[in-house]
Amino acid sequence: MKTSLFYGPRDIRIEETSDAEPGPGQVLVEVTAVGICGSDLHTYLLGNVGGVAANDPLTLGHEAAGVVLAVGDGVEHLKVGQRVAIDPATPCGVCERCEAGEQHLCLKLEFMGLFPYHGAMRERMVHPAHCCIPVPDSVTDIGAAMLEPLGVALHGSRLANIKIGEDVAILGCGAIGLFLIRLARLAGARHIFATDKHPWRLALAESYGADQIINVSETDPIAEVMRITNKRGVDVAIEAAWVESTANQCAEMARYGGRVVIVGIPGEDEMSFKASVVRRKELDIKYSRRMKNTYPAAISLATTGQVDTDRMATHQFTLEQTREGFETASTYADGVVRAIIMPNLVPPVVTGDQA
Q1: Who's near 99: CB < 8 A, 6+ residues apart?
Q2: What are the backbone angles phi and psi of residue 238, rounded to the nearest 5°?
Q3: How far apart are CA 96 and CA 275, in angstroms?
Q4: What's the predicted TM-score (pTM) here?
Q5: Contact 106, 97 (CB under 8 A)
Q6: What is residue 351's predicted lDDT score, i.e. its pLDDT?
Q7: What number of other Cβ atoms are within 10 A of residue 157's Cβ?
Q8: How does residue 354 score in pLDDT terms, banded at 50, 70 and 90?
Q9: Is residue 317 within 8 Å of 339, Cβ to Cβ?
Q10: What is the average pLDDT across 27-31?
Q11: Closest Cα to residue 60, out of 9, 18, 114, 124?
Q12: How many CB atoms lie within 10 A of CB 350?
């Protein structure tokens, strides 16, 4: 089968690899769609993400969906031909955090696309059956893959504990940021500030529910938030970008006694806050790690039409075009929001406004 392999920064190659057979408790899945996440871009550009380096050729991709081709012994809840969303995280189930119901903090977590565990940018893959979640026919293949970033946004939103009538700022309008905006609107936020430097992403942010749009290339986002809120600041500020200057922007925008949630991942694996600001305001700062048991809620939001999981998937590429997809996403070319690799897509690919 064809497999996309990452060899080093900006070096992705398509190679033939061997198929695997599902063992007990596993399924063989034909991959239908894989999103290129910001964390994938960290690896593609820098060779590592969160301090974890890819020391050998690695298949990236953890926002994935597929169709079950074969089931191993003991698998009863899935059948051949069933469409599934692929949970990229396999917890051990027996460590302290797993037993406490925090499988996302598993001490022995295996995560697709994070070295040394291969991801989904290949034609077929074997995966634990309990990490494959059936999806209804009303959810598209792309929508099924986008359930993972929606789940990440759900977890971040729950940590933020947004209340009716509160003001919220979302910094970064990629896929997760857009989902956070929509969830804030569903939670009853009064004003939702969205910041980004790309006009097309800000336009989408407005359609997802943001009512205060700030282009950081043109306007100081802190000054604008403080101006509109009459120097009060927002109740909640959520970072959903690359955590460069944006972490401190969240702290500066938050009101006294406000809340800050960091969802994004910094490129240099470090971040800092201005001590006087976070101390004086006595901010409640939380860090968010992927998702926590959010697939059921994500599927409900998608199937009821409360969250549009497909519209932000602006560009689609074949498996052979994986490197082109990463270049498009990493350079923010052609109005990209989320680039999707579709191993069985037949050219010509659909991109941009035609997606």
Answers
A1: none
A2: -120, 125
A3: 33
A4: 0.95
A5: yes
A6: 54
A7: 26
A8: very low
A9: yes
A10: 98
A11: 114
A12: 14
